[in-house]
Amino acid sequence: MQLNIDVSLEYELGPARTALLAIEAAEAEGQTVAESILDIEDASLRRIEGDGGVGHRVWTTFGSQTLRLRYRAKVGVSRSPVHLEGLAATPLPDLPGDKISCLRPSRYCQSDYLASFAEHRFGHLSGGKKIVAIRDWILAEMRYLPGHSDSSTTVLETFASRKGVCRDYAHLMCGLARASHIPARYVSAYGARVDPPDFHAVVEVWLEAGWHLVDPSGMCPADELVLIGVGRDAGDVPFMETPDEARFIAQQVSVTSD
Q: Distance between CA 95 and CA 110 in Å, rounded?
């Protein structure tokens, strides 16, 4: 499957006239970037590697205080659907060192506070069966409600309210997986079925020596997602970071499939 991505952003920047962008599709297992064009008016660019070696980010310095950007890409997705139920969890002493941070609490994902609930609700399961049960519980319990949460909302607030958007669903999935001793990381992505169209958030879990995509919002199957970057939570992979305030003017994200 090929996904066609078209993103336009327009923001008024603060005096620093600098932004760190994470919007370009990553070259990663299961996806191949056939075309990637980033047009930014009056700007100088410097690319750096993304967290976990996935994708990259772009330091952008502007000659004016207005960011005007268009990003277009064509990405072939060859990732096959995986039946998570048949995958085993890696014993904790056998985990690679770079996966340990994906077991720990983070700023927006205080997984340690969810440990008692995770043990009570999912403790009888293991590995992929536990992950599927967590995903299904989130789908049943959560209500997708734009505007209910914001960029400061934590997983504890989401767990209490049972409302939010894909960011909140992903934090809850990461939190319950980590509380169950399964490494999980937050993933920024594109998906053709995202409604309303926007940047998307999903999760990768570490099972049987590999990362496996899970969309706890239920919008996009793993074989229809394009990864941008990964991190511990949304604080690690925003589509744009600025050292001072940026004022929204316009934004559009379009993802279609061939």
A: 21
